[in-house]
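Hi, here's the filled form for the chain we discussed.

Project: internal
Contact: R.S.
Residues: 349
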Amino acid sequence: MSIMTADPDQKYRPEWRAWLLPLAFVVGWVVLYWNLQPTADALMAILPLTPKTHLFDAIGFFVFEVPKVLMLLALITFVAGIVQSFFSPEKTRALLSGRRLGFGNILAALLGIVTPFCSCSAIPLFIGFLTAGVPLGVTFSFLVAAPMVNEVALALLFGLFGWKIALLYLVLGLTVAILAGLVIGRMNAVELVEPWVFEMPAGVGGEQRMTWPQRLAQGWASMNGILWKVAPYILIGVAIGAGIHGYVPQDFMAGLMGRDAWWSVPAAVLIGVPMYSNAAGMVPILQALVAKGAAIGSALAFMMAVTALSLPEFLILRKVMKIRLILMFAGIVAVGIMLVGYVFNVVIR
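And the returned structure, exactly as it came back:
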């Protein structure tokens, strides 16, 4: 059986050929990932470094974690790209349009995980959702969930820390997004949105059915686009993590972000707000912090603050909402993140 592919020349190709590259990619990924640790050990053995020194530990962390995180990211973004082919911006707006508080917030938060949006697309999303009839509170649930609880963060947490931490992060992150939207929705703060937003015409888009070869092609394009875009953050994040792993004393991190210090969670949130990174770049830092004695809840609060409460995002949102609404949004989300941090510190020992 032959079908039309996404090629510009519009030639027909057998459908089975579209599956060859993804299948080869997955098989090659499994083989390489299985041999990652022995390869890293062999490389460290031939380097002219003295074992069990700070420099050796730092470089060893970097040599192993960079390919590990990049490989996880490649597989995740390939699968996520296929999933995201089912969720166009038009379909997302249609699913959320007219939804009431409660169910609408839950649906918006869930869509925020699987849809390919982040804080950098806040303005067009904000405008598009409101002009399509999506309530303000539902829109905020989406805006919180999209950068904070995304598929990349979840999969990397699963790969580096295990399913329990990934699942708890998912549940608590969704809870923060849902409750933040509910609170803002109940406040009926529509007057705090800049008036010009509601004067914009509602977007109209057509829906085009995609074949599986086209979805696979989109997954491949998503992997290539995101991987090279995020790779610098990964390298910076792993480099910082390597420095922490090799040179920062364990007692220092235990005292700064330890479980016993009640102020460690709010301090982690305050430190994270001025920074900007994506979840993929923060997870290696999170791993190094925990390995050096930081409590998992405090380290997660730091990561969530960097990804969901960054100053660059606030500057972008200022174009579409008044300062009071931004402060309300930041305050509600910050409280939610701190609660997440405290819960993790109590539950995960």
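Let me know if anything looks off before we file it.
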